[in-house]
Amino acid sequence: MAADEISVIGGIDTHTDLHQAAVIDGIGRHLATAQFETTPEGYQRLLDWFRSHGEVLAVGVEGTGAYGAEIARFLTTNEVTVIEVDRPDRKARRDNGKSDPIDAYGAATAVLSGRAGGTPKARNGIVEAIRALRVVRKSAVKARTQTINQIRTLIVTAPSVVRDKLRGLPARELVNTLARSRPGGDLTDPASAVRVALRRLARRYQQLDEEIKDADKEIGPLVTQAAPRLIALPGAGPETAGQLLTSAGDNPDRLHSEASFAHLCGAAPVPASSGRTHRHRLNRGGDRAANNALHTIVLVRMKYDQRTQEYVARRTAEGMAKKDIVRCLKRFVAREIYRHLPHVTHPTKPLPQTA
Predict the structure, then answer these.
(1) CA nearest neighbour of 166 among 191, 203, 140
(2) Cα(246)–Cα(252) distance, integer angstroms
(3) Which has the minimum average pLDDT: 4-18, 88-102, 339-353?
(4) Per-residue confidence (pLDDT) for residue 329, from 0 to 100
């Protein structure tokens, strides 16, 4: 049978410099495997190599959010269906071994068997720009927190002549006071050395604070442009909305229902019944950053939104625990968020009036 008369499925095990590709036919027979460089020329050779074996039905790619991001974009641009493939589970690796060709064939087989069927994020629009800027902001926030913790730790162990002057100052006033200080003296003296260290940490804190403010000025308008309906929801700010957009990606239509979005955010209820106990628990899976964003929105609504406060009061009177109330609210918020994501066809079923 000629190559152009058969249909094939590809698999790619992605790496930094070389991608391992493999091809199988419609009944799972291994046809060929080869390596290609992670360059535009290498991507084109990989695609030509796939097509030389027959009609390419789909390509399974490992790591579409990391090493495979660019090859996934390239294949999608060339009208090749790309399927996101998770790495093989540990039992399969113990049984079958581990090598790049094995993983590439495994990616193709996962597509053929239906075990893999996820659509990767497009990563080619404004949401990807928001994600890149949020990476910098998140690291700056983490570094700023570490810096203020280091300042307070140094003050705790500092000599009394230094500690007593700084005791009880609020964080902002403490940083400003230390940044304006002019320490001097012999650095062999612990008190002098601590003053120098505290001033440097305070100035580092101020620099990080300015970096975060600059990032907020850049991210806020992008989030508003990408999803104006989402940012207008109660409790949703640029940070939480930006995270939820990032989790959904530039192509949120890949999430076929609001239930799938809830699973993505770790907000889908999980049965936890046994014997005479009938209950659900919080889902501990999914994107934990998205789950944290939902949690933040719920906390804000519980404090400021009258509709949510009435719901909490009613469920509390019914005997429901706070963590279960929060779980229910997360699920309601996930449903509402999904309907306000860009490019999503909104269902006609009305939202419940309980959250």
Answers:
(1) 191
(2) 10
(3) 339-353
(4) 95
Closest of 183, 163, 184, 185 to residue 174, by C-alpha: 163
pLDDT at 344 (0 to 100): 58
pLDDT band of 5, cuts 50, 70, 90: low
pTM to 2 decimals? 0.83
- The pLDDT of residue 256 is 87
Give the span between the Cα atoms of 36 and 244, in whole angstroms: 35
DSSP lists the bridge partners of residue 37 as 18
pLDDT tens figures, 260-303: 999 999 998 888 888 878 877 777 888 999 999 999 999 999 99
Specify which residues 83 forms β-bridges with.
60
Q: Above 70 in pLDDT, residue 89? A: no
